[in-house]
Amino acid sequence: MARDEFELQDHGEPMVIGSDRGSSVAKDVVNVDEHKRHNSDSSKAPTGVSVDRISNNDPDGYNNVLEDTTHPQYTAKAWTSQRKWMILIAMWFVQVSQNYNAAVFPSMFPFIEEHFNKTSEQANIGQMLFLVLYAFGCELWAPFSEDFGRKWVLFSSLFLVFCWQILLGASPTFTAILVARALGGLSSAGGSVTLGMVADMYEPETQFQAVAFTCFGSVSGSVFAPIISGIVAMTLGGRWVAYMSVILAGLTILIHLFIVPETRAEVLLDRKAKLIRATDAEGPGKDIKGPWEANPLKSRLQPKAIWKMLYRPYVLLITEPIVLFNSLLSGFSDALIFSGLESFGYIMAKWNFNQAQVGYCFASLMIGYIIGWALWSLHYRLNPGRPAKNNNCPEERLWLLCWVVPLEAAGLIGLAFCSLGPKYGVPWIAPLICVGLVGIANYGIYIATIDYLIAAYGPYAASATGGNGFCRDLFAGLAALYTKKAYTTIAVNTPYELVWPTLIFGIIGIALAIPVYVFYFKGEWFRVRSKYAMKLEAERQGH
Asked: Rounded to whole angstroms, how far apart are CA atoms 78 and 261?
């Protein structure tokens, strides 16, 4: 569900990282040399303007360019905790809205089948288009937020999605529905921007709780969708499933517009530089520039750099075992949730649940997510030495996942046998408990794999997690193509018709969980043989 992509800082280096729904654009990161700060000369500083005398780059001894490394007091990192959490709560709604749109479409299938005379397989094409293009959409939106700022890039994404959801609800033809879904996925920025804002506001050692909360919003959206849309579809009709997402998107736009400010450091520093020049037009502040004023857009957007930024996630995905196997696990886990949007209906039909009641059952998945979020938050809070310890040994970040990842396979295998139904004495609550176990594991896999890749790849973590996020979205999209066939063509007309597909998923879950333990115990062996991770490992050894 959410794939969530975000920008974090590790070892003093900024990086764009993918995690939520949708994959990230990995940005090639270079070290920024710290300017040595000297004592400021208050007698030369212009009245009412704070300009640090940090270098001798100009005759007056003032640094002409404001940078986030030398003037963090002018960036979002200097904001109060209360202000940051107000923004995080607003961004939680943004994450929920975007992932709600991704997961709401299956509730329209009965309407599409009846109104447009289409099969469920044909309707599933709309789900596949949205999710696959969502992966590419995040890759496309991320660099714009890096070079134009967060607020208006995210606003543009939200507004476009709002428009395409209107088209979805009012579509006169099935083709128009497919177009609306495709453009909706491509227009979704996802975590590529929202989680990047977390890095704008927090230092590496303090950002985990904010990241965990924002990721929780990402996974929550795909759970709210079947719960709400199931009721709407039965009471108001299929078109209102889309219109409810329009209402949610509209409210999200207003929340974002009035609560969420610009957080990108370069934008804030450019604004501060303009203020300094305006208030000290005749003094030493007249030559102060912001980082983007000193480095125009044309010089930042070089075709070669953009191309390198776009292809590196896929290079790491193919050539790096750590990236590949973590991404496969994360992608498979996300695909399970979107398979469940359809397959859970088949299973709960054994207890004669209708569409709305099946939607209510997804509350068990939400409970699993809440437990997973609480586990990782408590683990971080109860281990105050975690940041330093984990920076020295990235594999330590997989410790809790080693205990949690078996819950995915256990939940799937349990769900498989629970799908035998009431004829075999299985109570309806049993499959819900199994789904809750899958939810705990899914959240853990989501946050832990990204956390590990950040630490293992340092300045290349953007590319590493970009491949991770891309797999999550791609696998979720492909799930729309095979789910119904899996549950309607294997062991047909036998008591095990629903058992075998879920059992197969459980066995795959066991196989994909094995690399977690391999990397926990032998991850260093893989890292020292990686040309990307070697540089960061050398820096660790040097310290």
From this structure: 14
| C-beta separation of 456 from 523 below 8 A | yes
26 and 201 in contact (C-beta within 8 Å)? no
- CA distance to 33, 68, 127, 530, per residue, from 132 (Å): 39, 36, 9, 29
Joined tokens for residue 177: 């529905």
Q: What is the dihedral of CA 19, 481, 437, 472, to 10 degrees?
A: -10
Token pair 């949690």 is at which residue? 404
The predicted pLDDT at position 125 comes to 93
| H helical segments located in 382-460 | 386-392, 399-404, 406-418, 429-457
CB 215 within 8 A of CB 166: no
pLDDT attached to residue 94:
92
| Alpha carbons 347 and 412: distance in angstroms, whole number | 12
In the prediction, which pLDDT does 70 show?
83
- Other CB atoms within 10 A of residue 430 CB: 16
Provide the CB-side half-sphere exposure for 355 (13 A, CA).
Answer: 21
Backbone angles phi, psi at 385, to 5 degrees: -90, 5
pLDDT along the chain (543 residues), means of 10: 43 39 37 36 40 41 71 91 95 92 91 92 92 84 79 93 95 95 90 79 81 88 90 92 95 95 91 87 77 75 73 81 87 86 87 90 94 92 62 80 94 94 94 95 90 72 73 87 86 88 92 90 82 61 55
Res 31: pLDDT: 35
Instruction: Name residue, tokens 């289409």.
Output: 118
Enumerate the β-bridge partners of residue 8.
15
Strand partners, 9: 14
Provide the 8-state DSSP code for 24.
P
Task: Write the single-letter amino acid at 425.
Answer: G
Q: What is the CATH number of domain 3-29+74-263+302-542?
A: 1.20.1250.20
Q: What is the Cα–Cα distance from 188 to 138, expressed in whole angstroms? A: 7
Question: How far is residue 71 from each of residues 9, 75, 227, measured CA to CA in Å?
Answer: 16, 8, 47
* DSSP code at position 372: H
pLDDT of residue 126: 93
Q: Please tell me the distance from the alpha carbon of residue 142 to that of residue 427, in angstroms, as a whole number.
A: 46
Q: Quote the pLDDT of residue 392.
A: 63
Query: Which residue pairs from 283-289 have beta carbons closer than 8 angstroms and sit at least 24 positions apart in sequence?
Result: 283/46, 283/47, 283/49, 284/44, 284/45, 284/46, 284/51, 284/60, 284/62, 285/46, 285/49, 285/51, 285/62, 287/58, 287/62, 287/64, 288/51, 288/62, 288/64, 288/65, 288/66, 289/64, 289/65, 289/66
Write out the two tokens for 280: 């000290």
The interaxial angle of helices 208-235 and 429-457, nearest 10 deg, is: 140
Q: Give residue 429's region: left, alpha or beta (phi > 0; psi -120 to 50).
A: alpha
- How far apart are alpha carbons 104 and 177 in whole angstroms? 13
Domain map of the chain by residue range? 3-29+74-263+302-542
